Amino acid sequence: MTDPAARTQDALATAAALRADRPDWWRDAVYYTVYPRSFADGNGDGIGDLPGLTSRLDHLVDLGVDAVWLGAFYRSPMVDGGYDVADHTDVDPEFGTLADFDAMTAAAHERGLKVTIDVIPNHVSDQHPWFVEALTAAPGSPARERFIFCDGRGPGGDEPPNNWVACFGGSAWARVPDGQWYLHLFTPQQPDLNWENPEVVAEYDRVLRFWLNRGVDGLRVDVAHGMAKPNPLRDMTIFPEPGQPRVAEDPRLDQDGVHEHLRGFRRVLDTYPGTMAVGEVWVESDERLARYVRPDELHLTFNFKLVEAEWGAAAYRAAIDGSLRAMADVGAPCSWVLTNHDIPRPVTRYGDGDIELGRRRARAAALVQLSLPGSVYLYQGDELGLDNVDDLPVEALRDPTWENSGHTVRGRDGVRVPIPWSGDAPPYGFGGADTWLPMPTRWAGLTAEAQAADADSTLSLHRRALEIRRASPQLGRGTLTWLDSPADVLAYRCAAEGHPDIEVWLNSSADSIAPPSAATPLLASGPLGANGSIPPDTAAWFLGPDPR
Ligand code: GLC
Ligand code: CA
């Protein structure tokens, strides 16, 4: 038997060699977002896990993505789906073991896939040993200094220290028995860390190195814009919809101090050549976003403007243009996102209640997303054209938003329903019959197996698009130039030296439009009309004349 330590060294060498091949692989990579609870269940308990993921890695290879972004899988009481971390250097037993993680990473690397993982630095679980210790420690003690504990306002300190609201509703402060309050931007079970405390900085240095030493290729930094709080903790402006973090001058988020902490992360990453980090940053302006990807900070930050854009050419153009400009100023590529485990699926967003319309539009949106310069984040199930499951029985709901909103907001469970792999009835080959969220019978025709056999399926469309993208430096690594186009039509040219241009057309108008002249269709999100005309709610890629 080989010595496990030697085996680990081999695995690390493979990982490093893969990155050394192209150290800036991350700039135009296509990342596939895995929400571990819902991807694949290896042991039949109805909950996705790491062995399940390993067993389905070939789906990612066949799809043609470059990397996995694996959502939170750490030891956690699961109040917020694992984003309440009790031990950042261990795997939650629900998902498997560290050995399962190593096996998954090795299997991914063998297939040429990079592995990137979540890091959750803004808060920990209230079950984290630090917080347990802080609760029994006295006000002002070093154990409390790792968090943001304050005395309250008003007589007896009975009022919270300020008026901040939590992102899942309610006050952002919770009171402990001795009368002090602690800050939690998310649920009360997710106390915010105090990044002014060098002990916190040192702990995350350890966490980052722990995973980088196991061969991971990159990080996704959860709530990267939350890691610094203003001093003093001034009140926020209460907007009509409390709980929405995306407002200008919100003192809870996007404070200047975050950048120093992110530079610290970058210094660690730079000692592991070819690794990267992407930030989850929700800010209003493209310019504020660009500050996170200055040369000594994060490599990437999600560009959420396509998430916020309404369906259609005008909104898409504004979103794309603003992001490209702001990122170009700091020399960083964009990272295009249409959805993730927190955001309703495009099929549902674009359908206005009509799933088929939504699916047509989501397929068109995918061809736009996959053509743009920069990197792309796909979310599991979007390659299958899944819709949100917005009719989950209320007793099944797990998102803390449901309880915290007094049963008025269902939250994000509808985008987290397990993936249908095969067969024609739930659980569709996912694993155990009793899936943690029930799967709808209407997905019978949408399994990966069924779609792989159908050349016109959404899965086949994604595979073909990724195959073309991989072979075409014009896409992802190219430059974008807008073309003149009729109203409600988006048109641009993707160019790379020495290659024919690829033109991308998206028709969000009500009428068919003529295709570009002197260009041949490469791929379309739906059937083209007579003479190659582009019907409504359709996008197409066209290949221009050879430049030679
Ligand atoms: C991020 C995660 C989300 C989580 C929140 C709190 O937004 O994507 O799932 O609830 O952070 O950690
Ligand atoms: Ca399982």
Automatic annotation (TrEMBL):
| Domain spans labelled Glycosyl hydrolase family 13 catalytic | 33-416
InterPro entries documented for this protein: GH, GH13_cat_dom, O16G_dom_2
Q: Which UniProt keywords apply?
A: Hydrolase
Whether Hydrolase counts among this entry's keywords is yes
A GO biological process held by the record: oligosaccharide catabolic process
Q: Which SMART domains match?
A: Aamy
Q: Which Pfam families match?
A: Alpha-amylase
Q: Does the keyword Isomerase apply?
A: no
What are the GO MF terms of this UniProt record? alpha-amylase activity
Family of the protein in this entry: Belongs to the glycosyl hydrolase 13 family.
The name under which this protein is listed is Glycoside hydrolase family 13 protein
Which organism's genome codes for this protein? Solihabitans fulvus
The beginning of the lineage is: Bacteria, Bacillati, Actinomycetota, Actinomycetes, Pseudonocardiales
